[in-house]
Structures are given as structure tokens and as C-alpha cells.
């Protein structure tokens, strides 16, 4: 039996990632999903509500995933490293998410609550780790929030430009070995940039 709401959500996710909110019509969604024109309104209320659901579906598991991956054991630098690796993993497991984000950024739409909560939570988590390391004397001075923004932006940027890197430089992040090398490189860069005594960092 066809699960119409799930099919509409799946199709809408792809179309919003391809064409953005304004470039995607209800007819495009229902045609690709094989549903009648009124299905979006019936199941979700409106195109806007469906758009919000798409992001909620992507963002809902994001914070719990990061919290579990980072955990509470280990030094602040070790947990920052786990944060970076977990962020790479989540974006790799949800390849549509970076495309959705860039489409949303290119629009004039307000920031969605699900996106705001996730960004605030993730940046707050890594800023707290940096502040903890500063208090312990293992992480250099600086504004923890600004440092967190710099760290979090690297995996996101590399995910956003993955197609360009693949076609322009033959760096294929979809290849597991290459993806691991990129994550390792970013981790080394982040640890060296944060550590009070980077020469002592492995």
C-alpha cells in the first residue's frame, strides 16, 4: 500500500533541494509522487507546512545524534574532534541536507525554527567544550562562540562544495577513503588551531 504522506515528503525533499522553495510547485510535487493535486493540502495543510516538515525531518535527529556522538568522556579537545567527525558523518548520511540549506540561504525566507534550534544547539555545544578547555588551560584564548562557528563551518562548507570538488579537482568525498582523509585533515587542523600547545598535540 502506498504511503502517500511519506512519498510526498520524500519527493518534496528532493525537489526543494533541486529547485528551492519558490522553484518548486505543488503540482511538481504531486506529479512526481503520483498523487492528486490536493494531496499536499490534505496531508500537510500547505506547501509552506510541507517545506517546514522537510526541514524538521532532517533536523529533528541532528542534535540527539551530535550529543550521543560527542558524549561526556575525554578531554575537551577529544570531544571537539568527535564533534567534527560526527558532523561529517551526519552530512554524509544526509546528502540532501547541504543542498536544502544552500537553497534556503539563497532565498528570502526566514530562518526556520528547526534550523535555528539545531544551529544554536550545535554551536552552543562546541563553544561549551572550547570554554571548558580554556578553563583547564588546554585550549587557547579566544571567543568560544566565534571559534565554534569557524570549526562547524568547515564540514558544512566541504559538504556544500562536494560536487564542485569532485568535478573540478577529482576529490570525491563520496569515496569512503577520501572522505576519511578529509575528516582527518580537518580534525588535525582544528586541534592544532585550538590547542594551547599545538606542538604537543599528536
Characterization of this structure:
The protein has 202 residues and is mainly alpha-helical. It folds into 2 domains: 4-55, Homeodomain-like (Arc Repressor Mutant, subunit A); 60-200, Orthogonal Bundle (Tetracycline Repressor, domain 2). The protein is 74% helix and 0% strand. The chain is elongated. The termini are far apart. The mean pLDDT is 91.
Write out key terms for the chains shown.
202 residues, mainly alpha, Arc Repressor Mutant, subunit A, Tetracycline Repressor, domain 2, 2 domains, 11 helices, 74% helix, 0% strand, elongated
Gist?
The chain is mainly alpha-helical. The protein has helices spanning 4-19, 26-33, 39-44, 47-59, 62-70, 76-93, 96-106, 113-136, 144-160, 162-169, 176-194.
Q: How many structural domains in the coordinates?
A: 2
Structural class: mainly alpha
Which fold name is given in CATH as the topology of the largest domain?
A: Tetracycline Repressor, domain 2
Strands, count: 0
Uncertain regions: pLDDT < 50 for 5+ in a row? none
Please specify the SSE layout and strand pairing:
Blueprint: H1 4-19, H2 26-33, H3 39-44, H4 47-59, H5 62-70, H6 76-93, H7 96-106, H8 113-136, H9 144-160, H10 162-169, H11 176-194
Helix pairs in contact: 1-2, 1-4, 1-7, 5-6, 5-8, 6-8, 6-9, 6-11, 8-9, 9-11
